[in-house]
Amino acid sequence: MTPLLPVVTSVLFWVAAMCLVAGVAVVGPRRLYGVGENLVPYLRESRREVAALIVVLVVSGIGRPALQSISEVFGLRLTGLIFALEGNFVAWLQGTFQSPRLTLYFSSVYVFGYAFLLVFPFIAYAALPESTTLKRLIVAYTLNYAIGLVLYTVVLAYGPRNLMPDAVTSLLYTFNPNFQTLTGEVNVETNVFPSLHTSLSVTVATFAALTHGRYPRWTPIAWWIAGSVVVSTMYLGIHWLTDVMFGTALALGCVYLSYRYVDAVGDRDGDVADQNAADRNVADRNAADHNVDDGAVEDPTEGGSA
Amino acid sequence: MTGRISRRDALAGIGLAVGSAGCAGRARNIAGREGSSQLVLEIRTTPADEDPNGIRIARALAENLDAVGVDTRVETMNGTDLHRTVLLNHDFDVYVGQYTEVLPFDPDVLYGLIHSKFTAEAGWQNPFGFTDLDVDELLEQQRAAAESDRARIVSDLQESVCEKQPFTVVAFPDALAAARTDRFVGWETGPPISATGLLTMDLVDERDEDDGEPVTLRLATTDGRITENWNPIAAEYRRYGTFMSMLYDRLAIVDDGTTIPWLAREWEWIDPETIEIGLRDSTWHDGEPLTAEDVAFTYEFLRDTSMGGTEMPVPAPQFRGRGSIVESTDVVDDSTVRLIVGGADEAVAERALQVPILPRHVWIDRAETATVGGFEFDTETTEALVTSNEDPVGSGPMRFIESTPGERVVFERNPDHFLVRSGSDGSEDAEADGDTAESTAGTEDGESIPAPYRGKPAFERLEVAIVGSDVSAVQWVADGYADGTVSNLGPDSVPRIGRESDARLVSTQSAAFYYVGYNARRAPLSNPRFRGIVASLVDKSTIVDDAFAGYARPATSPLATSPEWVPGNLRWDDDREEDPVHPFRGEDGSLDAEATREALREIGYRFDESDRLLARDQ
Questions:
Q1: Is residue A26 one of the residues assigned to a domain?
Q2: Where in the numbering of this chain does the Solute-binding protein family domain appear (chain B) (predicted)?
Q3: What total of structural domains would you count in chain A?
Q4: E strand or H helix at A76, and its extent?
């Protein structure tokens, strides 16, 4: 018996509650109904992107111990260098602003706010009349995870709380030690460079800015939460400023690439009645435009199930 | 032109431009000399999550070295990684570590740690690369000396070691644990991080446990290595060897300072060089009988895990010092074996009995050179050193059941073990015969086993859960997910125990001292005077207050938990506030950097104009 189950339950509960509230407030009840209709066809349309995301997540989930061993033997040990680069910034940040209220706030944001921030765009973008944004989001997430996984393997570094416990308190885990049981399930302590909390949050925030016309209310919320998550990674002593800066750069790069990959014009005339044809068109066009040779063979029988 | 580099660059340019033989020769004479630059040192240690204390020592030392003018970096790595790079590959400048023995030990420990004959070997045997003729001599002498002389030799040895500082002893920590006492008691009697501590624990009330479930002791630790590797001689995966000692019996163990027979039923000196050992009736976890052949095999195997199969012996990276006491073995019959110990002192020879006995039928196949995908990488590595030893076959009171890497490992009581048997047939003796700890001779199993061990362990299952940090471990105990913690607790977690009503802070003495190890193979750490000055940058009193929240005692000698061996001038008593040999260069925790630089100048080191310590380019 471990404390994992209660923690996971509470995260699921809060994320579901926040999604419900935000769904009504941001998307609006009417468009929210569209989610149910759109989600399946949209995901089918983006099946290659979804498959890629799943592959990356599975590799990161199952292959992590193996990659970790590779990292230990061949990886670059950069904890000392990162500290030499930025010095006591995180210690200063924590030492200057630490208060029980802020710790409560940032801990909640780091765990609950972040999970919500990652999940909600799926709902919001599935409610849009075309699938382009959802597809881009999935591509951007995939790139974030994939590049993050490569960097985690190449770079072996520990966060401030592990290097300088005398100056930086591990605030998240002293606030609620059971959170560590949760984060231990999804991450390894040597995976601090870059900060995926930062890169995924900034990714969502960037999308929120780019889709401001669709969801004007979502932009400030996403920016607020993303900003808080970014600060929380350092305030809680988990990440270095260096991790955060690289995470931000990674996010912007991934969003840029996702826009390059998923062509906006190509999907505008996407006809819901003929998913399969539209899908094939997009795939063809992408292959032609960007020389993407994915070798995927469209299954003609799949059209029948649509 | 004050900058060193710009001068060299200029010279290189001049050399190219002039090109005449005479001038070029002069340029070569100047530019061809290796320049100096600031000394860079890296301190390796484990991260705070894994061990909250070591990193604090490393940081404090790094700060002081930086202040003196050494460019110091702290690099964190997990325990496996640290041991691999330091103990096996000798790839380090300085590291902060913890010694592996929890219970007070014999001075002969130093033989394995610093004898120069081990410098080329990989493992716990002399990882420092320390070589000193006088120390070697004293190490040899203390092994063979008569009991009366040994005290004097050991005292000389400590003085020599403390002066030369192959490693700097920082402090002896208290073995702290958060524990629940609603199910098990006895956390205080032996440290729960020792096998004897776990074995002597008692169940509070057996009736409470009568729900069909096996009686389970649940422990929480931050050290996940026990879920991945069960090889008792793999130095990179072992910390104190607590759980290994429960899987693998030793001929003798130390109980409350006395060596008591364990797998050996009894032993007898048949001449000054030979101990004859009678074994208890025992079987391996796979059902094979344990015989004298296994014992003889173990000692040979520790000396050379290739069993003569390679050109040079491949010694085990653990128990090497102890194993080296036994020169040869002689199997008399199935349950009798003689160890030839070459006139070693009795206490030293008893230390040789404390190695895990390995089953010959399992390990003989591991004497081959290790291969990866059929290829040999290195003839100095045998399969025995690299195997994770899945499904370990030991003879100890617990046997391995299952494991999920990084999460948990489960052991189960071995019903055939002599401790369990002694509980059923010797329970009356236990009441009548209080001080059996004294007797080392006995014919029946029960008689030579001290009362606290009879019928033990008190649990049928042992579950060890891996948690993220010391704070998490404490919370697991407080919330009832675990009965006790078995990894080090730091200043963030100790106060937490006080706030939790269901958890108690248990504190016992530990001999597993923290130390700063130096790689004497690398300049300037090869210079004992330089190491002495580094040692004087370790502010032991302040570290004890800050890094251990007071739950440790600063020390000078590595034998400080055996005060009878420590000469008065090396003791760190209550009235002593600074190290007697290399006192801290400063006051009240703040370093006198200028005075330290002056001391370094006196022993021949140089500084540049910005007070950076210069070293030859490496």
A1: no
A2: 260-605
A3: 1
A4: strand A76-77
Contacts of A82 in chain B (CB under 8 A): none
Instruction: Find the domain containing A231 and state its range.
Output: 4-21+34-264+271-290
- pLDDT band at B283, cuts 50/70/90? very high
Burial A88-110 (b: 16+ CB within 10 A, else e): ebbbebbeeeeeeebbebbbbbb
Residue A301 is assigned to a structural domain of this protein: no
Answer yes or no: do B73 and A166 touch at CB < 8 A.
Answer: no
Q: Are B268 and B276 in contact (CB under 8 A)?
A: yes
Q: Name the A residues in 189-208 with CB < 8 Å from any B CB.
A: 189-190
- With both helix axes pointing from N to C terminus, report the angle between A100-108 and A218-235 in degrees, rounded to the nearest 10: 120
HSE value, Cβ hemisphere, 13 Å, CA-based, for B554: 26
Interface of B with A (CB under 8 A): 42, 47-49, 52, 55-56, 59-60, 73-78, 80-81, 405-406, 465, 467-469, 471-472, 474-476, 479, 481, 490, 492, 496, 546-547
The answer to whether A139 and A49 are in contact (CB under 8 A) is yes
Q: How many CA atoms lie within 13 A of B57 on its CB side?
A: 34
Q: Quick count: other Cβ atoms within 10 Å of Cβ B311? A: 9
Residue A300, in any domain of the structure: no
Q: Does A180 touch chain B (CB under 8 A)?
A: yes
Per-residue pLDDT tens digits for B395-420: 999 999 999 988 999 999 999 999 98
Q: Is B265 helix (H, G, I), strand (E, B) or coil?
A: strand
pLDDT tens digits for B419-443? 988 876 544 444 444 444 444 334 4
Q: Is the pLDDT of residue B40 over 90?
A: yes
Cα–Cα nearest to A19, from A129, A119, A137, A109: A119
Model pLDDT, residue B53: 93
Nearest CA to CA, how far is A204 from chain B (Å)?
A: 29
Residues 6 or more apart whose CB falls under 8 angstroms from that of A11 comprise A111, A112, A115, A182
Distances (CA, A) of B542 to A202, B32, B171, B182: 43, 46, 11, 36
Note whether residue A305 is domain-resident.
no
Q: pLDDT band at residue A191, thresholds of 50, 70 and 90?
A: confident
Helix, strand or coil, per DSSP, at residue B590: strand
| B78-136 pLDDT tens trace | 899 999 999 999 999 999 999 999 888 999 999 999 999 999 999 999 999 999 999 99
> Dihedral, CA atoms, B495, B498, B502, B508, nearest 10 degrees?
80
Beta bridge partners of A304: none
Structure ipTM: 0.82
| pLDDT > 80? residue B326 | yes
Q: How far is CA B60 from the centre of its chain?
A: 22
Q: Which of B52, B73, B467 is nearest residue A80 as measured by Cβ atoms?
A: B73
Neighbours of B456 (CB within 10 A): 21
Would you say residue A271 has pLDDT above 50? no
